[in-house]
Write a structure and sequence with these properties.
The chain has 442 residues and is of the alpha/beta class. Helix content is 51%, strand content 11%. Helix 9 links the parallel strand 4 (197-203) and strand 5 (234-239).
């Protein structure tokens, strides 16, 4: 009987799935050949972490004298709780592996497949039976499609009656269409991969990229799904994870808008569960300023959902909103600043409740990644973790790891974390969440 909660991970980045021991195993034959200065890796890492990293020495020592050497390699790679809150540090530690990963891909198919097998085997040993991996690649046209094909085939080769792997292709928000087209073209050329490549993900930097930018992409995807019924792609969407570029009302709205676009699952949605008073306490003047265009979108949204918002106790003064809209119309590239007060906090909490109820109605699950939120999502501590609000709502919810290797966590340890830090027991949590496999893409 598979473990209901700790056997199925729906939000995992493949390049974040390598544990320190995997880094050592993959790096062992190549660490002396890797150019560690390429792409400013060493300089960037040392500046961000205020250290003098010597990767060759770390690998050599970890191999010659594992007792003393391996913990040093691990400390240089794992993004632990002591690093929390510093996204810059996270990116450089993440790149420690990416550097080896990139070098491995240059060596050709065999090395690439061996690396993927390393990560998937680790997941199998942990007792996982279903994982949807996200892995983005680089290169032009054929070289790009070739990497995606190798990845899909390597994941397909890992599937058996005990384990299922699926592949989600991340689309860069700046320019999602070319990666989307490459995915479609790959499926046309290799239709057997449609079994493995099941979706795309709006990923990477979220700030500055409102959901409205992707309306056309979703329409295109729907048309293509209708035209190629055997090659269905569904979208998942990272949203409400980092949102210092805007007001809290807008951050809450973006989560709703991503679901309205047709995203099948939403990654993180910290904005729906983090208390507004806590959110603004994270930085000086946090969330007070936003682009006039955001404020205008918020006004349009409040007018559209006026009746529904009122049902949840949110005040919507249409006359006032229309006047504000009129006053802002010719200032779309300007910024507005609106400070917070207790009444506004109260209304934002009601807006969170409203959107969580909407997600419940639409059946759109939130992928909650507890440790990731604490270490890179700007959540100050366990007590103020968004998961408390998310669990208390009726929104569908699943627990995921995001980058289990980089954080040195497992899905089982995430489930355990929730049991430890909430009022739920293992049984009541399993009951609240249900089987996450019902949210899988296919
Ligand atoms: Zn993620």
């Amino acid at each position: 009987m598979p473990n209901k909660l700790s056997g199925c991970d729906l939000h995992v980045h493949l390049a974040g799935s390598f544990y320190a021991e995997d880094l050592l195993a993959i790096g062992a034959p190549i660490f002396r050949e890797v150019d560690w200065t390429a792409r400013d890796f060493l300089d960037g890492y040392n500046a961000a972490l205020n250290t003098k990293l010597n990767p060759v020495q770390l690998f050599a020592e970890a191999l010659e004298n594992p007792g003393a050497g391996f913990p040093k390699l691990k400390a240089a790679y794992v993004f632990g709780s002591e690093d929390s809150g510093d996204f810059e540090k996270f990116m450089w530690k993440y790149r420690f592996f990416s550097h080896v990963w990139g070098y491995g891909w240059e060596q050709g198919r065999e090395t690439a497949v061996a690396m993927i097998t390393q990560a998937v085997d680790h997941h199998k040993r942990q007792g996982l039976d279903y994982v949807e991996y996200r892995a983005g690649f680089w290169g032009e046209d054929e070289a790009l499609r070739q990497k995606m094909q190798i990845c899909a085939e390597a994941l397909a080769a890992e599937c058996d009656e005990m384990f299922t792997a699926r592949y989600i292709i991340p689309l860069p928000r700046e320019e999602p269409l070319s990666m989307y087209r490459a995915t479609r073209q790959l499926l046309q050329e290799q239709p057997q991969l449609a079994r493995i490549i099941v979706g795309v993900d709006l990923a990477s930097r979220e700030e500055g990229f409102p959901p409205k930018l992707y309306r056309e992409l979703f329409q295109q995807m729907n048309r293509d799904n209708a035209a190629f019924p055997d090659q269905q792609l569904t979208a998942v969407y990272h949203v409400g994870e980092t949102f210092f570029d805007k007001s809290l009302e807008s951050a809450v709205r973006w989560c709703h808008e991503a679901a309205l676009l047709g995203a099948k699952r939403l990654g993180h949605c910290i904005a729906l569960g983090l208390d507004p008073a806590v959110a603004v306490s994270r930085r000086a003047k946090a969330h007070e300023a936003e682009l006039v265009s955001e404020r205008l979108d918020q006004i349009a949204y409040d007018l559209r959902f006026a009746a529904e918002l009122r049902q949840f106790g949110v005040t919507v003064d249409e006359k006032k909103l229309l006047d504000e809209q009129q006053a802002l119309l010719n200032r779309a590239d300007d910024w507005v600043e609106r400070p917070y007060n207790p009444l506004r906090f109260k209304e934002i909490r009601l807006r969170q409740t409203f959107v969580l109820a909407q997600l419940a109605e639409m059946g759109t699950p939130i992928e909650c990644c507890p440790t990731s939120n604490l270490r890179i999502g700007g959540v100050p501590d366990a007590e103020h973790h968004p998961i408390h609000r998310l669990l208390a709502s009726s929104a569908p919810l699943c627990l995921c790891t995001d980058d289990p290797g980089t954080f040195d966590i497992t899905l089982a340890s995430e489930v355990e974390w929730v049991v430890q830090h909430t009022d739920y027991t293992a049984e009541s949590l399993a009951q609240r969440l249900g089987d996450p496999r019902r949210f899988q893409l296919c």
